[in-house]
Amino acid sequence: MIKKIIISILVMLLAFIAIFSGIRVFRELKENKESADTYTDLENYVSIPRVTPESEPTDTNQSESGETQVPSNDPKIDFDALLAINPDCVGWIYIPDTDISYPVVQGDDNSYYLKHLFDGKWNSSGCIFMDSRVDASLSDRHTIIYGHHMKNGKMFSGLTKYKKQEYFECHPTGLFITPDTVYRIDFFAGYVAGVKEDAWKLGFQSDDDFESWIKEIKEKSWIESDLSPAVTDRVLTLSTCSYEFDNARFVLIGVIRD
Length: 258
Known about the structure:
By secondary structure, the protein is an alpha+beta fold. It has helices at residues 2-42, 79-85, 165-170, 207-220, and strands spanning 46-47, 61-62, 68-69, 76-77, 89-94, 101-105, 129-130, 142-146, 173-177, 182-194, 235-241, 248-257. Helix content is 26%, strand content 24%.
């Protein structure tokens, strides 16, 4: 009799675990789809010119003032539409020939957009966001942008490809586009960091402090680059989860060029 009771309890327990696991998987898949659908809708507000041999900027035109104009292959962003959806939108991050092409928001803290989509709906997938402590104009010495490493390959999952030198050499630059300016990001370092490291350091006390931080980053980098930022430069870090150890993060760092 006791044996039958124990077996019944075990069966019920296993059934409960199976149901609970199924609910979690279903919820995760549902949230991932909502996140992907949201970003698919936002793609309607960006136009990325297709670069072909015919569209390379070899030919130039002249404006009415006589100035030479070179065709631009920079993405065109409808910021008016994006800001109407979410006034927290501060720019668009884009790395050519990759899947990374997303709007960037900035909240009042670094928690809200970990669990909210671009349109403000709660979702564990979150969205791409800029550190709340920095100036959205990229005027600080160090700007940080965070994004989840999604299992479906979306958001900042592609950053971890920069762990390989060959990938870095094929994708050495990115763009951060604001309503007023297009910034080029020249990547020079990338590595796996623990959350207690100085990869996300802000508020440098002096030029020497900043220079020492850059030197440390270069020494830790998994990729090799001839680029070495000057103390007058500003840098941008793209940060996402990695899985080499608990609370591991992969950071990709580049120099900001106007």
